[in-house]
Amino acid sequence: MNQSATLLEADGIWLQFGGRKILQSVYVNLQVGRITGLLGRNGCGKSCLLRSIMGLMPTETQSVRANGRYVAKAYQQPGLIRYLPQHPFVPSTLTVQAAFGWYGVDINEIADEYPTTYGFRHQKIGRLSGGEKRLTEILLVLKSATDFVLLDEPFSHLMPLQIEQVLQTIRQESTRKGILLSDHLYRHVLDLSDSIYYLTVGGRTILLNAPEQDLKDMGYIF
Ligand SMILES: Nc1ncnc2c1ncn2[C@@H]1O[C@H](COP(=O)(O)OP(=O)(O)OP(=O)(O)O)[C@@H](O)[C@H]1O
């Protein structure tokens, strides 16, 4: 896809494993300029949903559309969408700088905001600590030239200062991207997001009207 998109919709997503229904007719939409939160209990299917949107999951049915145009395998269109999975994905033999090159991002872009990561630019990814690696991967995805970004638990492994910085970067990048953010640090998700989906056990998305109260009612928080 060459034209940039402003609306990404995923609907009719059905996924089951061995007869166990994980996602049932799920609908989500993302818009450039907005941050959309995704919350739900452990094991309810949030990561499966993100992988389904990317076209990485063997769903029974699904429709992903960019500005109304059907997208078969979103992962094949990095200019449309980038995805931060829960687990490390950058080959450990690459240097930080090479990883940025792989994602088409000029590493000098992060020199001022993230001097520590910049300082590691000649280091191999496999030599970084868990938090340093996570931060590198988050920046690769967030700084990419893409319309939409899916973030699966971006705050895991990060220390509080890094979380604050990443929150700021997510905010900045959301002015020109549509971002889906899923993380159990729900306060950050609530603070950042323009709208919140809750994925129920049983695999349906609910758009929350009064997020804090709704999350209590659904037993996600006290
Ligand atoms: N390839 C697979 N085969 C069988 N079951 C799977 C597979 N992948 C995921 N599951 C199951 O699907 C369910 C949803 O998993 P998923 O990782 O999407 O949950 P989640 O909402 O992201 O959970 P958490 O908040 O704990 O990260 C889980 O019960 C998981 O065990």
Gist of the model:
It is built from 7 helices and 10 strands. The protein is α/β, with parallel strands linked by helices and 222 residues long.
Give the secondary structure arrangement, pairings included.
Layout lengths: L6 E11 L2 E12 L3 E5 L6 H9 L6 E6 L2 E2 L10 E4 L11 H7 L12 H5 L10 H14 L4 E5 L7 H14 L4 E5 L3 H7 L2 E5 L5 E3 L3 H7 L5
The chain binds adenosine-5'-triphosphate.
Give average pLDDT, whole number: 95
Sheet bearing the most strands, described? 6 strands, mixed
Count every beta strand, where a strand is a DSSP E run of 2 or more residues: 10
CATH architecture classification name:
3-Layer(aba) Sandwich
Family: Belongs to the ABC transporter superfamily.
Domain ABC transporter: 8-221
InterPro entries: AAA+_ATPase, ABC_transporter-like_ATP-bd, BCAA_Transport_ATP-bd_LivF, P-loop_NTPase
GO molecular function: ATP binding; ATP hydrolysis activity; branched-chain amino acid transmembrane transporter activity
What does this structure look like?
The chain is of the alpha/beta class. The chain has a single domain (7-217), classed as P-loop containing nucleotide triphosphate hydrolases (Rossmann fold). Helix content is 28%, strand content 26%. The chain is built from seven helices and ten strands. The chain has helices spanning 46-54, 96-102, 115-119, 130-143, 160-173, 186-192, 211-217; strands at 7-17, 20-31, 35-39, 61-66, 69-70, 81-84, 148-152, 178-182, 195-199, 205-207. The strands form two sheets. The chain has a six-stranded mixed beta sheet, with helices on both faces. The chain has a four-stranded antiparallel beta sheet with strand order 2-1-4-5, with helices on one face. A hairpin with a 5-residue loop joins strand 9 (195-199) and strand 10 (205-207). Helix 4 packs parallel to helix 5. The longest helix is centred in the middle third of the chain and has 14 residues, at 130-143. The chain is globular and about 45 Å long. The chain starts with 6 loop residues before the first strand and ends in a 5-residue tail after the last helix. The mean pLDDT is 95. It binds adenosine-5'-triphosphate (ATP).
